[in-house]
Fold this sequence. Notes:
Elements: E1 5-10, H1 16-28, E2 32-37, H2 41-44, H3 47-54, H4 70-77, E3 80-86, H5 88-96, H6 102-109, E4 114-118, H7 122-126, H8 128-139, E5 143-144, E6 148-151, E7 157-161, H9 165-178, E8 189-195, E9 199-202, E10 205-207, H10 214-225, E11 229-235, E12 246-250, H11 253-264, E13 269-272, E14 279-281, E15 302-304, H12 308-314, E16 322-329, H13 333-344, E17 348-353, E18 364-371, E19 376-383, H14 384-398
Parallel strand pairs: 1-2, 1-3, 3-4, 4-5, 8-11, 8-13, 11-12, 13-16, 16-17
Antiparallel strand pairs: 6-7, 9-10, 14-15, 17-18, 18-19
Bound molecules: cytidine-5'-triphosphate.
Amino acid sequence: MDKPKVVLGVSGGIAAYKACELLRRLTESGHDVQVVPTAAALHFVGEATWSALSGHRAATEVWETVHEVPHVRIGQQAELVVVAPATADLLAKAAHGLADDLLTNTLLTARCPVVFAPAMHTEMWENPATRENVATLRRRGAVVIEPAVGRLTGADTGKGRLPDPEEIFEVCRRVLARGPLPADLAGRHVVISAGGTREPLDPVRYLGNRSSGRQGYALARTAVARGARVTLVAANSELPDPAGADVVRVGTAVQLREAVLKAAADADAVVMAAAVADFRPAHYAAGKIKKQEGQEPAPVELVRNPDVLAELSAERARPGQVVVGFAAETDDVLAHGRAKLARKGCDLLVVNEVGERKTFGSTENEAVVLAADGEETPVPHGPKEALADVVWDLVVRRLP
Ligand code: CTP
């Protein structure tokens, strides 16, 4: 089978160096990548780097190999065009159909999905001209990823950073697999909890679990792609922030409860993907617990944590709010899942089987989604994004 043909457009911003990492991810995962930098981009990263990493000569102008008609051919043959970084200038040209170099010509001839990953200063991103250009591109079906918040080129910080290359790669992979997704969560606010809580025993020790946060992050990423405003309550995950989501970091179950309930007040849906500790140590030692020579260790006394999912389900913050839980089970998976769905009172329960090598830390997942109305949706083994999309499909159908 031919490798999927991806065009990586690079426009002239300092974040061009991060596009090298995106290029590597694309080529290493089996894509044939043609890099099309703008002349300005070459001030930041030279042609030699793009050619060496992609295995193709990286052309900037339409005049370089005119007999091959590159200004039409590259766009026509592409299965995906991703522009990272996309500057304010490039977005403006794309929105208005200008074509004064090879990249803008390629954007005009491409019939495939197009992804823009903008990077610019906050003022430029917030300028009404840029806002309208982004709206125009989105209306025409392009995927414009929200920039990340953080350190910008100088000493300043704000919205406008290029999202992490891994995040851009995930968006590309999804768009290649499913095409641009429907914006069926536009105007909705969704809250997702992810990761695993840590319940401290003393300043250096805690009771925790092996949840990586990957499934919750995939839910956040896919919800952003479907147009939702997303609040991600992340417990101890080391994953990069999903582009376009508001991330609230928490440590313990009690902190997670507070953050989730606050965000849920105006949410259309809440998905509890976090592994919340059922118990926490009854006593927290302000100083490190020391072993005593010749003495047995003192038993750890535990107390119950609040059950956030049960609480959300029992006291819906808004009428019609859809509440989704997750259940990790090791045996008799479906029977335990059905009982848990009834006990917790949520609308949907994603049940997956866990074991030594299953689910935790993995990028893949397999599950059955049980609904309170009796519907059962098996989701075959696949990327966590695929399961996330099934969850959102089921949520969308239940929204008022
Ligand atoms: N959950 C929660 N608050 C807790 C514990 C769990 O909100 N204190 C949520 C999780 O986020 C998940 C779901 O409940 O969505 C399932 O949690 P799980 O621990 O598997 O269920 P339990 O009711 O604790 O059942 P058991 O321990 O008997 O398997």
